Amino acid sequence: MQDTPLLTDRNALTRNRARADRARGMFLQETAAEDVQDRLSLVNRTFTNVAIVAAFPDVWRACFPDATIMTDADTLDLQENTHDLVIHALCLHWANDPVGQLIQCRRALKADGLLMAVSFGGQTLHELRACLGQAEAEVTGGLSPRIAPMGEIRDLGALLQRAGLAMPVADAMPLKVTYETAWHLMKDLRSMGENNALYARLRRPSGRQVLMRAADIYALEFMEEGRIPATFEMIFMTGWAPAQNQPQPLRPGSAVSRLADALGAKEEILKD
Predict the structure, then answer these.
(1) Cβ density class 160-182: b for 16+ within 10 Å, e for less
(2) How many Å apart are CA 133 and CA 128, to the nearest integer?
(3) How many angstroms separate the Cα of 119 from the Cα of each of 64, 141, 161?
(4) What distance in Å separates the CA atoms of residue 18 and residue 62, rounded to the nearest whole number?
(5) What pLDDT was estimated at residue 1?
(6) Distance CA 168, CA 172 (A)
(7) Residue 192, exposed/middle/buried by CB under 10 A (0-12, 13-18, 19+)?
(8) Hey, how many other C-beta atoms are within 10 angstroms of the C-beta on 266?
(9) DSSP string for residues in 23-82
(10) What pLDDT does residue 145 have?
(11) Among residues 32, 40, 25, which one has the least CA distance to residue 235?
(12) 160-164 own/partner pairs: CB under 8 Å, 24+ apart
């Protein structure tokens, strides 16, 4: 028995990814891979055994030719205590159990190994989400799941702690892409393999009235200089497998200097 409702229809997701345009639809995957490379270049560490969890392995193999790359199945093909770097590559938003995915990555790390995960954040496609919701409510009087729920940066950062990782850090990189119309955006999402694969989605094509109304609302509410924007928020998360020689946080209250003195600021007592 399934204890919790499924978020993703894996068959639909696999079908969508198989239909993706590898030549023109991978620009977000490529951006994520390049940014991960840049971030790793700032880490004073040489990684010799890298594993990558990716939906589109060719993109990531181009940046990490020696890495072991696997699909983002519910059970990852990872061996415990094997890798010094694991990258979860822009597919966590489709996981039925995101915490479970990160725990599996954590177990695959050697002591003091690094996990770097990049995922879409909660601001991703907020314009399209709002327009589709309003259009469907107007036309049909109801709502149906159309865009995968994506976590806010605070929530995603907390997942690292729940997975048992030390020194967790999360930061956001918003990207704004502009399109001629909402139809061009929807076509691009199909090219990315990111069209609707929610388990609870409508199992019939969306009504033309809903989509046309959504396109009209998009143009009316969001158009900028003759084009519509679409936000893609990437959240980059890093955490380390615990090790005895890692820096440890100080005990609360153990500071010997006052922050106000360091900043040269004047303290004021707040009224109740």
Answers:
(1) beebebbebebeeeeeeeebeeb
(2) 8
(3) 18, 32, 16
(4) 19
(5) 43
(6) 14
(7) buried
(8) 6
(9) TTS-HHHHHHHHHHHHHHHTSS----SEEEEESSHHHHHHH-TTSEEE---SS----TT-
(10) 85
(11) 32
(12) 160/102, 160/115, 160/117, 160/237, 160/238, 160/239, 161/239, 162/99, 162/102, 163/99, 163/102, 163/103, 163/105, 163/106, 163/115, 163/239, 164/103, 164/106, 164/242
Q: In which residue are the tokens 């009209």 written?
A: 216
pLDDT (tens, 9 = 90+) of the chain, 272 residues, equals: 456 678 999 999 999 999 999 999 999 999 999 999 999 999 999 999 999 999 999 999 999 999 999 999 999 999 999 999 999 999 999 999 999 999 999 999 999 999 999 999 999 999 999 999 999 999 998 888 888 888 899 999 899 999 999 999 999 999 999 999 999 999 999 999 999 999 988 888 778 999 999 999 999 999 999 999 999 999 999 999 998 887 666 666 666 777 677 777 777 776 76
Residue type (1 letter), 4: T
Q: Are 26 and 59 in contact (CB under 8 A)?
A: yes
User: Which residues, at least 6 apart from 167, have a Cβ–Cβ distance to it below 8 Å?
Assistant: 238, 239, 240, 246, 247
Residue with tokens 């205590």: 81
| Stretch (H or E) spanning 135 | helix 126-140
* pLDDT at res. 3: 60
Nearest to 188 by CA among 24, 52, 40: 24
pTM, to two decimals: 0.87
Phi, psi of 93 (to 5 degrees): -70, -15
Cβ neighbours of residue 30 closer than 8 Å, sequence gap 6 or more? 59
* CA-to-CA separations, 105 to 44, 57, 100, 144, 244, in angstroms, rounded: 21, 17, 9, 33, 20
Tokens coding 269:
């007592």
